[in-house]
Structures are given as C-alpha cells and as structure tokens.
Amino acid sequence: MKKRFLIYSFFAIATTGLVGCSEDFLDPVRDTSVLTDEDFANNADANPALIEGTLTGIYTYMARPFAALGSGAARHYDIGHKGIDIWTDMLSSDMALSNNAYNWYANFTNLLSTNDFTQQENQITWTYLYKVVNLSNIVIQNLGGNDAIQTTVKNKHMMGQAKAARAYAYFYLTQLFQREYNPNQAILPLYDGERSLYAKQPAADIYALIIDDLNQAIDLLGDFQRTQKYQINKPVAQGLLAYTYAAMGMYNESKVLSDDIIANSGHPLTTTAQLAFPGAGSGFNNVNTPSWMWGFDVTPDLGYGLVSWWGIMDVFTYSYAGAGDRKAIDNALYAQIPANDVRRTQFSSAASTLLMPTNKFFHQGRVAMGQQVVETDYIYMRVEEFYLLSAEAAAMTGDDFSAKNRLKELLASRLGGAANANAYVDPLSGDALKKAIHLQTRIELWGEGKSYFALKRNKASVTRGTNHTFLNGQTINYDETRMIFKIPIIELNNNPSITEQN
Questions:
Q1: CATH number belonging to domain 6-274+380-494
Q2: Does position 43 have pLDDT exceeding 50, yes or no?
Q3: Spans of all domains in the chain
Q4: Reported pTM
Q5: Disulfide check for 465: which of 7, 284, 331, 402 has CB 3.0–4.6 Å away?
Q6: Which of 34-43, 125-134, 140-149, 419-428 shows the lowest mean pLDDT across its residues?
Q7: Beta carbons of 437 and 348 less than 8 angstroms apart
C-alpha cells in the first residue's frame, strides 16, 4: 500500500526560498513567509520536527515538479533528480530524441544548451543541486554542525542522511560541471554551513568533503532501519561513495564498497520476469521491487501529472512521449543487444513507438495516455549497478577473473541461463572485457541516468545511431566542452567571485 508523503514537505518548500549559490542568495531580504536559519535555531529545541521535516522535505524536493525555478517559469523538464537523469542519458547519446514534437529537448540533444551558459538547463541543474546542498546544511547546522557528536539515535540517523544528501548533490555537481577528474582544477563554490567559499574551489577540496560526508553517513546509518525507500540508508551511502571513488579512478576502494553492497544490503537481482512486460511483477514502476535500493514512492495525493518523469517518458501516461515527443534507445546500442537477451524486449518494435521503452517503464494499466495523475514510482538506485561497478573496478585493476565472475552473475538471468552467460563472458579479457562491461552497463541501466557517468569513467566516445533527430551518426567524445554543463549566467551575475566559465 502506498503511504502519504506530504507530512513534512512544507518545511522544505518553505526553506527553498532562502537557498542559492551567490552571497546575494545566501543573505536574502527577510521574508516573513519563509522559514530561515534563525527561525530554525530559535525553534528547533522546542519543536525538533522542524529538523526532521526539513530532512524529509529534501526528499520531497528531489522529486518535485518545477523544483529549481518554480511553477512560474513553467519549464516542464524542471523535475528534480529525474530531470537530470534524462539529460545525462541524452548527453551519453544512449537516449535518442527520435521524434521532436514539442522542442523541450531539442537544444539539449543538439548539444547547444551545454555550450551556452544562458540556457535554463544549466540554471536548473545548478540551482536544484545547490538547493539540496543548502537544505542539507540547514539540517546539519541545526543538529550542532559538521563536527557535532549526536547523543540520540534519531539525531544520529538524521545527521547521516543529511550528510549523504549533501554529498549526493556535490557528487553530481562534480560530474556535470567538470570535464574529467582533475584534483587541482578549481570547479565549484563550496558551502558546508560553516564556510561559504564563493570562488571556485579545487576539485580535491570538493571531493574531500564528499568522501568525508559519505564515510560519516555510512557510520551514522549503520543501524538505521528506514521506513521509506526514499530515505538514504547505509547501502545507498555506500553506493554513492563507490561511484565517487570510481570517478576518481580509485577502483580498489570502489570495488570493496560495491562487493559489500552485493553481499550485505539484502537486495537481490531483478528477476528475469521483472525486467520486461509481460513478466510477473514486470516494469520499473514500483518502489517495492526488492532490487531497488533507493527510490521515491509517487502517490496520487502529490498531484503529479504531465510535469513529471513519467509525463516525459511513458506512452501509457498522459505525456509528451504519448503525444509524439519520443524518447527511444539509440538504435546502434539496441543492435548490440543479443537476440536471446530479455532486455531486448524492453523496447517496442511497433512503428509508432519504435524502440521506446514501452515494456520497461510503463503505467501498469497499459492504456495509451491513460495515467493522468501519476502513481508510478521513481527509481534512483538498484543493486545491479554495483554488480556492474564491481566488474568494472576489477577489470580496471587487471583482475579479469573477478570481473568476469561478477558479469556472469548478472547476465545469467538476462541471457537465458549460466551457459549463455559463460559463452558470452569467457572469451573476454583486457580491453575487450572492459568494453563489454561498459556495454552491459549501458544496456542494463538504460533510462536510469547512469550512462553518462559510465561514459566519463571509461573515457569513451559514442557514435550516435540513425534514430536521433539531431546529430545522428556523429561521434562524440566524453571530454568535449559540449558534454558538460556550464555555470549559469545567473550565478556569474550574482557571484562576483566567479569570473570565468568552467
């Protein structure tokens, strides 16, 4: 049964008015309709629900329509975390805009938005992630600050979640606003609630904060038994840290964390039936799917509709996709999925929805444009990511044996049994194995916002298939300028400490 989510969302919505990046944003004119840090400090002891409400509100904010700019801007791709998932999948070229009917993604898939700091895609991404940072800072500061020792179990768990949420936002900022990992390059302002460093700080300092936050979160959340899957628990924090280490090239550390998640998180692999319609329990639409580690339970009382991930992606929702703005798997990638692979059936073969994910992401009613008030859930992280990341980490460090075993574990249920998985994996070694793991990451996690990070980790290039409306057939390298977001003009105008682009 779905549970209501609105109980504390007011607090996050109220506090989003006070957060931003520049000094002007961090020191706003007093607005009595908005909760401020001072309000929290004056009332936290009397009403600790203010702190808990802000923490819960962070999770609400991550999934909220018009999250960054507000409803007045009416940007229908401004949908929080899942909006970034779509943009990064498009940047990787694995998600094709195969028919452009409404122009929401035209400039982005044409790689024009990422080359122009005046475009709102950059502002939305920057503003959304820094709001998560600043909301997390509010929770941390009202629990005593970065170095405070928590004396109650509840406060320990709230601190752990807030530090992990802050690390999540900074990790995404590093990936989206830096071309590739260079510890000496100044990349981002740093705000940790006690320091407001408006100038761009070296990547080494940003990553140090991410790693410290996540290590503390892993410790603080060791005994946390969450009640909702939107909450960050220890395995989710470990997953974020595994990705951070991999982005830095610290593959031994990434593998240790990935293997621990596999062994101890309690999340089984998604079954063959669950992977694609019409299998039992199929579809990536239910947060209670056992393989999902982190996700958001979308309920009808939230009132999500067209302006949502489902409203952009799913033909069985009242959506842009259903009305002709098609998002499909790149046909060159699809051609590399073996005929005996169940994941091939996730994508439509019908001419009107060709290669759209009609059997992976769908409202269970499966009526064209039928879901008008969204009740299908958002996926953020699942355990398969760490089978693939463990395999990648092993291959990157020359441990082909471990890499192949992890890949076989995943593929046995995808390719129709262990014998088929063995036949695919056994001949691989060295660079061929690395390329196969990268390919399997792209296939397995299509549409889930992970392909762009994998492209950068593997320092790869991609040649678009023929079903892209823009730049079809073009080869794109991971480190091109047009492959990273730009610090938006609003930040440059309001923050005099940043004088040049990234």
A1: 1.25.40.390
A2: yes
A3: 6-274+380-494
A4: 0.93
A5: 331
A6: 34-43
A7: no
